[in-house]
Amino acid sequence: NMSLHGSLSELPLSDVIQLVSVSGKTGAFEIERDTESGTIFLRAGQIVDATVGNLRGESAVYEMATWDQGYFSFKPGEESGNVTIHLSNASLMMEAARRLDEWRVLRRKIPSLDLVPYFTTREAATDQVTLSPQEWILITRIDGEMSIDEIAADLKWAPFDVSKLLFGMITNGLVALARPGEAA
User: Fold this and answer.
1) Using alpha carbons only, what angle is made at residue 119 by residues 112 and 142, rounded to the nearest 5 degrees?
2) Which of 57, 138, 171, 178 could be disulfide-bonded to 183 (CB atoms 3.0-4.6 Å)?
3) How far apart are CA 90 and CA 122, in angstroms?
């Protein structure tokens, strides 16, 4: 009976999942960071379901894979009634690694999800920039008060996806970031 628990700063989630999938275990990983917690379910070593916040399935795995701090513990035998993930563990982890690289790039302009996006100039929004439907939806949520995390929760989108859209808007000068309570 293998008890597996530890710190994500010492052992990244992808390594932990590697270990368990090789052993063919069935059970659940509980992952905690600050006030957030999520679960990844394995059946015979294969990831079949995951949840964190409003996210479910693959996007939940990708979100938790970007956590570089927090704690995990494995509960053997704990099962999920749902199968929300159909990719192989290897494909999931490859995509998670790709996102982690992308995340490092995003962090250069978006160091924290607690920051509050606000419009630098109103007229630029409609003038020079062609926006995708997703960007329009995001723009309706930017109010100079909600943080990136709060906007993601409000839209039920992954913070990663919101950050990716914001990165473009910040790069072209449409949006800037402020600390809570300091936005224009």
Assistant:
1) 65
2) 178
3) 45
Q: Give Cα 150 to chain centroid, integer Å.
A: 13
Query: 144-153: per-residue pLDDT in tens?
Result: 999 999 999 9
SS3 string of 60-85?
A: HHHHHHCCCCCEEEEEECCCCCCCCC
Residue located via tokens 């995509």: 95
Residue 116, exposed/middle/buried by CB under 10 A (0-12, 13-18, 19+)?
Answer: buried
This prediction's pTM: 0.76
CB half-sphere exposure, 65, CA atoms < 13 A? 27
Kindly state the tokens that stand for 102.
């992308």
Phi, psi (rounded to 5 degrees) for 33: -145, 120
φ/ψ region of 45 (left if φ > 0, alpha if ψ in -120 to 50, else beta) reads left
- Which stretches of 110-147 are DSSP H helices? 122-126, 133-141
Q: Could you say which DSSP state residue 1 is in?
A: -
